[in-house]
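Fold this complex.
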Amino acid sequence: MPYIPHTSNDIAEMLATIGVGSIEDLFDEIPATLRCGYLEKIPSSLTEMEIGALMRQRAEQDSGAVCFIGAGAYEHHIPAAVWEIATRGEFYSAYTPYQAEASQGTLQLLYEFQTMMANLTGMEASNASLYDGASALAEAVLMAVRLAKSKAKSILMPTTVHPIYRHVVQTIVKNQGISLVELPYDIELGRIAPDNLANFTQSTALVIPQPNFFGSLEAVDELTNWAHAHGILVIGVVNPLTLAVLSPPGEWGAKGADIVCGEGQPLGIPLSYGGPYFGFMCCKKAYVRQMPGRIVGRTVDLDGKTGYTLTLQAREQHIRRSKATSNICTNQGLMATAATIHTALLGAEGLERVALTCHANTTSLVEKLTAIAGINRVFKEPFFHEAVLRLEKPVDEVLRQLATSHIFGGYNLTKFYPKLGNSLLVCATEMRTSAEIDNYAEKLQVVMEN
Amino acid sequence: MNKIPDNLKYTESHEWVRIEENGTITIGITDHAQEELGDLVYVELPKIGQQLNLDEVVGVVESVKAAEDLYSPLAGEVIDFNAELEDAPELLNNDPYGSGWLFKLKLAENSHLENLLGADEYAKFIAKDK
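Structure:
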């Protein structure tokens, strides 16, 4: 449905039809003291040409730097075809698919999206997407508490989970009697040490990030088996791109993760200064009735033809009200569409190549940077496409100087992980060329020497 | 089928109660309830050994269009539940007083059977609903 504004003739005709003098008259019921006045100090309008010039000037202020920042949002190549297709009117303006007869296109695509996420994660069921990785983790925590029913509501949350995700989860669960128990990491290894878990056996669920916020790989099989041996549910938080090369959560340990969630941005979504992104959630089939979000199902109509519809709606608010699995009654339809097209274009082979290139580029970046005096790797363990470096100079100052050479050097970890000292999280995706990596090393050497 | 069998007791939340010969209690939902709900697709039942208190929510019956809480009309310990309903929830629609039973209780000492409705009282109650 396109957006077509009313002309003043349209408005006059409508007012005449209903016998009202002006639009303002329609608001008469609202007491004058409560009505908004006009906005003040709004500058006068600019022409299209003037706006164009202004926007170009503004864009130049922030563009042109080469990005080595990861920390939860990654710059990947998105084939032009992805957004060419995703911005077609049929996808772009599609609204909520609760009327199945009018939404078969959207519903079929979301069904494909669910299939894709279930395949990638190695899980049996998927929903049609959530808002983002952080809130998806919060939903996974709430789901685990519902599944466990009688047990104490305590969730093991490693400090190697993204700090902002942990903050969001805390905000969402803090008034629901759920406690998040901080699980410390081993400062040598840069991941959770499975031997240190003896005190935590009375928990509802264990969150396992893979890779973790440092880019390091957690001991997912050992952790999953430990959790299941104590009747603890396993929630995996994963980067979907890594699933092309890492063991998928459905295959962790003997029984696989119970719930999987994460941020889908790496699959065809531009950085866009922080969003929109999309969250995803998958689970074992036995748990599907406790999964929040929309779920699309495939069925047959009265004539036996294949059709798609939203299903298991008794979980959702409009039926279950305060006992619904979530207050979410939507999904990130456009982002999920783009991710499905992106992944279909790349295919399993393409996704694997991207993942391996990211790993190779970060390996090269780390080698070149640690060759500089005053820069060292903090953890010795394997990483995917991010690593932590310790600098002998304040990270803030180093990053500021690198920025003057149009390099975004990485993410400063000092604030969230003070025990790591002057530490920097660096990332080189498939988009970083060897020339860019060499240039970073050269410029950083100069900064360290001054 | 007699829609409101005389030998059972009832509640205002549309559960029926049968006192068995050995003193245990069988609980289900009435024909009126299953008709209102429509085709049942899923039933969530309490676990064996679970201690139930009066009027506590112990499970859920879910149809295509609605999900209703199941209340316990009596206090006691769950000694059995109808496992057949997992694969065949339609038993509840087709035979709500027989093969569609939900769970069985061992009564707690302070249980109040006398607060339950008789068949006539329940009939009057649902007549008011219509």
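Chain B has a mean pLDDT of 90.
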